[in-house]
Amino acid sequence: MSPVWSLGAGLLLLLLWVRHRGLEAVLVHHRWVFVCLFLLPLSILFDVYYQLRAWAVWRLHSAPRQHAQRVRYIQAQVREWKNEGSKRYMCTGRPGWLAVSLRVGKYKKIHKNIMINLMDVLEVDSERQIVRVEPLVTMGQLTAYLNPMGWTIPVVPELDDLTVGGLIMGTGIESSSHIYGLFQHTCVAYELVLADGSLVRCSPTENSDLFYAVPWSCGTLGFLVAAEIKMIPAKKYVKIHYQPVRGLQKICEKFTEESMKKENSFVEGLVYSLEEAVIMTGVLTDEAEQSKINRIGNYYKPWFFKHVEKYLKADRTGIEYIPSRHYYHRHTRSIFWELQDIIPFGNNPVFRYLFGWMVPPKISLLKLTQGEAIRKLYEQHHVVQDMLVPMKSLEKSIQTFHADLNVYPLWLCPFILPNNPGMVHPKGDEAELYVDIGAYGEPKRKQFEARASMRQMEKFVRSVHGFQMLYADCYMTREEFWDMFDGSLYHKLREQMNCKDAFPEVYDKICKAARH
């Protein structure tokens, strides 16, 4: 039988099986079939398109010239909204399924959509060590652009598809954040189109109130059209030290100790059970022992969290040299560890060598094709949350995560939180060391109920003066939300800039208790 006939027979059998089981049942219980046959190839096409577009823009140097024209078009849309009587709120016209957040926002169907086609790197200023970018530039795009020039940005949040705009209007973090803070703290200026159609630049010394109010505002103060971000010199490798630690108290002590060392370029922890973890520290370097180089980003390599787990199972320390860009995107191929629930055999060596070059599927395509049944299933039986808590509360926080969720691995990422104005700052007058605890997966706690369990988690986070990342499902009441976040500057600016008729309040945009 020829290969064509074999392929045809296979597809026919697959279609008959899908018809027998029902499409919805297949998508819910055998989602890997749909992902492998359709979403992985589509994801490749997406990547090829955006890479070719970025290459063409770079070759033609068109981004800086067209930027001003595109901004004027955004201003014209806002003025048109005003002339129509400002009858409904505005929001970006980018489809909700394109966002990396798993939250499904329905507000775009009822709000005035403002089309914002801004996805290019505008300028690299080596003297000032600043890169100026448009809001839809992704982390994968930015590191690919800067690294060949010998530059990178101080905080490169995980996952290639995260955008600058999302990381500013929401937040972003990486294992270098114990030195540089959150993504917003590496930005030196923003440019926004406001509710009256005007274009405004803000920085710590120019329109400073707006500069500090923009992060975490989720696009409810204006439309971001450009950002200036600090750059630092890039080096070829990250020298990683893997340290297995057992016992919760020892895990927290070791993680805190390493997070306080500024000589560590990177600090990260993966907690595999209540009593087991691997603490990783890294330093940037141009020199490497050839025998210890691990190009972990290559498609055939094991998923990073599985690779790290080997040190725990073997109960041994280790040192490796990972190429810098591979390190920055080390969790991308497995979407941290979410992909194991979608493609259970995805880390199998045979699958990696044959199909690993197509992984991961685009999160946006997963959202677009998930359907109502999968969405409800994920909402009730799946957790994707990042809680930011003071480092001094780490041990108690892990115990709470274990009791309320029992999801492993947990991701630990330290960050320094300066006492700047805005929605998120420490309780005291000085900068404080915090930690992001990321929980991604299916809770193993018996009688887990999404709303009740998450409200319990949110109550605990508020009690230790922590914060919940706003990309995730939030179940707080309005009063509880503004108890967690400092809304004083935010509400003052919304009043001053006439935002109340132009944009919904951030709570109404992101919290499940308020969303339409």
From TrEMBL:
Q: In which pathway does it act?
A: Steroid biosynthesis; cholesterol biosynthesis
**Molecular function terms, GO-annotated:** Delta24(24-1) sterol reductase activity; Delta24-sterol reductase activity; FAD binding
Q: What is its main location?
A: endoplasmic reticulum
Enzyme Commission code: 1.3.1.72
- Of which family is this protein a member? Belongs to the FAD-binding oxidoreductase/transferase type 4 family.
SUPFAM superfamilies tied to this protein: FAD-binding/transporter-associated domain-like
What Gene3D superfamilies would the database entry show?
Answer: 3.30.465.10
Where does the sequence pass through the membrane? 32-50
Protein keywords: Cholesterol metabolism, Endoplasmic reticulum, FAD, Flavoprotein, Golgi apparatus, Lipid biosynthesis, Lipid metabolism, Membrane, NADP, Oxidoreductase, Signal, Steroid metabolism, Sterol metabolism, Transmembrane, Transmembrane helix
**Chain's role:** Catalyzes the reduction of the delta-24 double bond of sterol intermediates during cholesterol biosynthesis. In addition to its cholesterol-synthesizing activity, can protect cells from oxidative stress by reducing caspase 3 activity during apoptosis induced by oxidative stress. Also protects against amyloid-beta peptide-induced apoptosis.
Q: Which positions carry the signal peptide feature in this UniProt record?
A: none
Q: By what name is this protein known? A: Delta(24)-sterol reductase
Q: Does the keyword Zinc-finger apply?
A: no
PROSITE patterns (alphabetical): FAD_PCMH
Reaction catalyzed:
lanosterol + NADPH + H(+) = 24,25-dihydrolanosterol + NADP(+); 5alpha-cholest-8-en-3beta-ol + NADP(+) = zymosterol + NADPH + H(+)
InterPro entries to which the protein is assigned, alphabetical = Diminuto-like, FAD-bd_PCMH, FAD-bd_PCMH-like_sf, FAD-bd_PCMH_sub2, Oxid_FAD_bind_N
Segments forming domain FAD-binding PCMH-type? 50-234
Provide the topology term for how it sits in the membrane.
Answer: Single-pass membrane protein
Names of the cofactor(s): FAD
Q: Which GO terms describe its cellular component?
A: endoplasmic reticulum membrane; Golgi membrane
GO biological process annotations for this chain's record?
A: cholesterol metabolic process
